[in-house]
Amino acid sequence: xxxxxxKKDEDFNEWYNEIVELADLCDKRYxxxxxxxxxxxxxxxxxxxxxQIREEMEKTNHQEVYFxxxxxxxxxxxxxxxxxxxxxxxxxxxxxxxxxLEERWLLRPTSETAMYPMFSIWIRSHADLPLxxxxxxxxxRYETKQTRAFIRVREIHFFEAHTCHVDFEDAEKQVKExxxxxxxxxxxxxxxxxxxxxxxxxxxxxxxxTISIDVLMPSGRTLQLxxxxxxxxxxxxPYEISYETEGGEHNYCHxxxxxxxxxxxxxxxxxxxxxxxxxxxxAVAPTQVVIIPIIFKGxxxxxxxxxxxxxxxxxEKNIKSHVDNRDISPGTKYYDWxxxxxxxxxxxxxxxxDKKEIILVRRDTGEKKSxxxxxxxxxxxxxxxxxxxxxxxxxxxxxxxxxxxxxxVEEAKNKKGIVELPWCGNDDCALEIENILDGNTLGEPIxxxxxxxxxxxxxxxxxxxxWMRFAKTY
RNA sequence: GGGCCCGUAGGGUAGCUUGGUCGAUCCUUUUAGCUUUGGGAGCUAGAGACUCCAGUUCAAAUCUGGGCGGGCCCA
Length: 474
What we know:
The chain contains 13 helices and 23 strands. It is an alpha+beta fold. The model has no long low-confidence stretch (mean pLDDT 93).
């Protein structure tokens, strides 16, 4: 049974690199570090993820827009913390044609500073609020560290939603809705996750607070898939985004943003994949069912017809199937579609036709069974559902087994994955723990939890205010 | 910012120490034809590489210097 050269549970990072290449997701040979070419299958997968995001946006009344890639320096510099946070990783445009520009332009690292001057023009009255927009675009960040396909890149495929509200409370409602969106989306992708309220020193530049969406990769490192930010009026003041109330007063808006990136794809690869290749959750699999005709001389037509009929029936039930009638051996096709992560494979050959059966093979478990042709559609629907469930359950089990709530740094040291320690609220204590554990502070759980108050901070011994999570991160 | 390593077909490799036997090995890939098809089929005939520039030399994939590209470690 041919498998990847590197095994997922032995050398995850090498395995990941191998899979990305084998499955035709991206080409890292483009001669700029961290700027990879999206190959057809990778782009298709990303588009399927984006489609799910668009669906969620539609359901929650967000409008899709597209803002320019270039931002003038003067707009970028209106909010001080924001510049400090992003300044060092911005690409600058200094020349156009043969002229040096009077004012430099930058490639968006994120779009606040492009959008907000326009919001200021658009929003006049309380009736214009809430404003809820989003875009799916490429953003640029000059990474100096090691890059990794879909996980740390310089040109980032990025979803960003921006909202404006009448007051803090309404913005808080948006944060809640964003959390629900993340939950629905990641459930579809069969990915368990955690929300963390980022510590003060690590929140988004300019935000009032930041909630991160993190998943745990099989290597034991966490990967931040996205974040939800409450800006309060931190941006609306410098960008003058205000509205007139019913009473005729002028108030500043309260704003939120919600961003996620191509890291979702990185997580899908890492969390569900195995040594045979990708395993795609049915919700985002471009092909959910692949049908392999087993052809013998003289019976080609009969078999191919049966495949096409089944494919049509599946289409009627909105199940995406593909009949692979390439002139290569069936074994090759099996490996091919396993590598691509198609959740369910169906084999139809002359023997099956005689018995009025088809053969189903699950990608995740390899389980193989014959079912009667009459009941096939129902069985396929059920199987796809079962695959989703078991992908989620396995990933959830891994996450649960690798989240540890402990009281001392000593205990924390021996744990793989994410640890939660009682924390007094003092930055220095958390930073010291980071040092000892050689990891990063993820943040505190967003759910209220009184239990930690029983314990004390392992560094200074003062009473704990909250749990604080630490992990090695990507 | 400091240190280290690497560069041979699309991918993976051998050759480099000690220059000549290299008209560059093997696997994979790929083109055409025949034959096959229930887990990567076979045969025949083809295709495809020494990162670039300069130097040393009778002779450079191999030695020297530089450029470009890639990677790692430390701060």
